[in-house]
Amino acid sequence: MTTDRPRTYFKPGRPMTVNTVPDPALLTFHRRLPGYAPTPLVYAPHLAAALGVRDAWVKNEADRLGLPAYKILGASWAVYRELETRYGPFAPWTTLEELALQLQPHLPLTLVTATDGNHGRAVARMARWLALEAHVLVPEDMVPVRIQAIEAEGAKVDVVHGTYDDAVAAAARRADHRHLVISDTAWDGYTRVPGWVVEGYGTIFREIDQQLADQGGQQPDVVAAQMGVGSLAMAAVQHYRAPARATQVVGVEPIRAACVLRSLEAGELTEVPGPHASIMAGLNCGNTSPLAWPSLQGGLSASVAISDAQAEDAMRLLARDGVVSGESGAAGAGGLLAVCVGDDTEANRARLAITPASTVLVISTEGATDPEAYARIVKAGTGEARPAADQRS
To answer: Which positions fall inside the Tryptophan synthase beta chain-like PALP domain (predicted)?
Structure first.
């Protein structure tokens, strides 16, 4: 039974250590994409005060390679690796135009995917860069502005009657030798491409390490990562649960699409049936990716399910620190606020070893992908979360 009450699951015992070796070609590949530059790492004193910690950092993915979300990192790498696997090896190249020329003998090719918004637009952008076709399937509750953004990339968009998970199933059925499915979630017999999506997200964390070193910041004690199907959180676990790191990783998802939290509680993959009615549209997923599941089950320190109101509070708070963060983008900050401000604050902080000397990191995964909704939400409330210190006796 679905409840609107925020929930938190803490992993019993210590999270596992993950031994993952990043692909050395990944960052070189991303640097070849048009307009590549590391996204800003923003020092966030208002967020730090609200959480009752010394330092808070926000990785701001509001403008990544000309798109308003981080998804292009995983989509571009997965598209490249899948094309290379099927049609390579490619001759040396330095621009996407040179790569596109090598694909011409194999045309026509269509990239197919399902999306709640950002991943589909990223796949469509990669198709446009490589002179390929794109076919994107979206759930029926997708807001028009996000559909229009995908269509503006030159993609064909079909609305599927049902949820995001229904769109995933519909996309999978379109796979053939001329239609390459580029999904960020896995299913039985389909794990290669989602694995490359997760690997592509690793550039975010490599940038953060360098930016913290450059700005004199210490490595985070706690990292919050949004969870839809779990791919970004899997990438965070792979990076921060590596040997010689002791960072706690907290996954955050909407209450009405808390498939990871439900699975953790059950000890096995568990579906949350739709409809998944949350403003955190990019996280409205009823099934955890089976590829991500082992990493999430073993490597997460906690899983937090938050309400739309908590996401909105986080959007307004991040705006005070100069970060434009959409509904899904602010979810990570909302999850940490749910842990550190409110019910069971002392016990929650103790479980994650959060102290006034801690450093936290959140990934703002998107900008204002629905500008009208963003403006309405940020202007709607003048109240803000009180500092965690004010909540403790």
So the answer is: 34-338
CA distance 92 to 42: 36
50-85 confidence digits (pLDDT tens)? 999 999 999 999 999 999 999 999 999 999 999 999
Chosen CATH of 7-68+198-391 out of 3.40.50.2020, 3.40.50.1100, 3.40.50.300, 1.20.1440.130: 3.40.50.1100
Task: Name the catalytic one among 116, 184, 313, 321.
Answer: 116
Instruction: Please state, in angstroms and as integers, the Cα–Cα distance from residue 300 to each residue in 9, 184, 264, 278, following that order.
Output: 10, 19, 10, 23
Token pair belonging to 230: 């779990």
Which residue of the set 71, 308, 313, 321 is catalytic?
71
Helix (H, G, I), strand (E, B) or coil at 139: strand
Collapse the DSSP code of 327 into the 3-class scheme (helix H, G, I; strand E, B; otherwise coil) and give the result.
coil
Would you state the torsion angle of the CA atoms of residues 213, 19, 200, 132, taken in this order, to the nearest 10 degrees?
Answer: 160
Radius of gyration of the chain (CA): 20
| Domain regions of the chain by residue span | 7-68+198-391, 71-193
What pTM does this model have? 0.93
What is the SS3 assignment for 40?
A: coil
Return the CATH class of domain 71-193: alpha beta
Catalytic annotation present for 379? no
335/327 Cα distance (integer angstroms): 12
Q: Phi and psi for 164 in degrees, rounded to 5?
A: -55, -40
- Concerning whether 165 is annotated as a catalytic residue, the answer is no
